[in-house]
Amino acid sequence: MTKRRKLILAAGALATLGLAVPVGANLWIADKADGHVYAAADVPPAPVALVFGAGITADGRPTPYLAYRLDVAKTLLDTGKVEVILVSGDNRTHDYDEPTAMLDYLVAQGVPADRVVRDFAGRDTYDSCARAQRIFAVQRVIAVTQEFHLPRAVATCRALGLDADGVGDTVGKRYSGPWTAGARREKLAAVKAAYDVVSGRDPILGPQEPGVHDALIAASGD
Question: For the chain, which residues score pLDDT lower than 50?
């Protein structure tokens, strides 16, 4: 076999592998999330809504996409689908505090502060799911995010042992450009999600946080 022929075969094999990996990861997510994605009115109740961070503005307010997620969580609380909202986001620097921005937004919308618990180390979807279980001792959640991100969020939570269903925001579709771009990114983000789950990497860890447990007890007495 000539050197050129070997190079062509090797390139073909790499191309096939490069296609197979994202396809396989996306199929895994679709299978794992199947039957666990709902509209807000139809989702089975759970003690906790887990809201994933989606960025804050320069003046410290939630981005529109994050605000839409929080609106969904408020609807779930108002309709009795959940009792507590766990807001999980990035706070790796003093000047960037997603969880507090999420808390402040919800309180401004009329949500009692004692029904909101902050996770300051939810740096990505995997970390938020893993910390909900390992740090906050959550067993059952309703994952809340944009519709295009929801299957990955639900699949990741369920792969890590959480009994998770999900509700996705669709209001964000009004921003068609970012929505389309986000949906496209999900195809590759699936590969990272599968790698994270298979590798079993640790999120940022620390002592057990009693916040969710305490909030649920307080909610039961209301």
Answer: 6-19
Q: 187 is written with which tokens?
A: 């195809």
Which residues 6+ apart lie within 8 Å of 90 measured at CB?
Answer: 53, 96, 98, 121, 122, 123
| Strand (E) or helix (H) holding 85 | strand 84-88
Q: CB under 8 Å, gap of 24 or more: what pairs does 171-176 form?
A: 171/68, 171/71, 172/64, 172/65, 172/68, 172/146, 172/147, 173/147, 175/64, 175/65
**CA 14, CA 178: separation in Å to the nearest integer?**
31
- Report which DSSP code applies to 175: S
Distances (CA, A) of 215 to 82, 141, 146, 211: 12, 14, 25, 6
pTM, full prediction: 0.90
Beta bridge partners of 51: 87, 144
- Domain total of the chain: 1
- Interatomic CA distance for residues 131 and 144, integer angstroms: 16
SS (H, E, C) 23-53: HHHHHHHHHHHCCCEECCCCCCCCCEEEEEC
Q: 184 lies in a domain?
A: yes
- Asked, for residue 197, whether it belongs to a domain, the answer is yes
CATH number, domain of 202, equals: 3.40.50.620
Cα 210–chain centre separation: 21
> Residue 15: inside a domain, yes or no?
no
The answer to whether the beta carbons of residues 141 and 157 sit under 8 Å apart is yes
* Containing structural domain, residue 138: 24-220
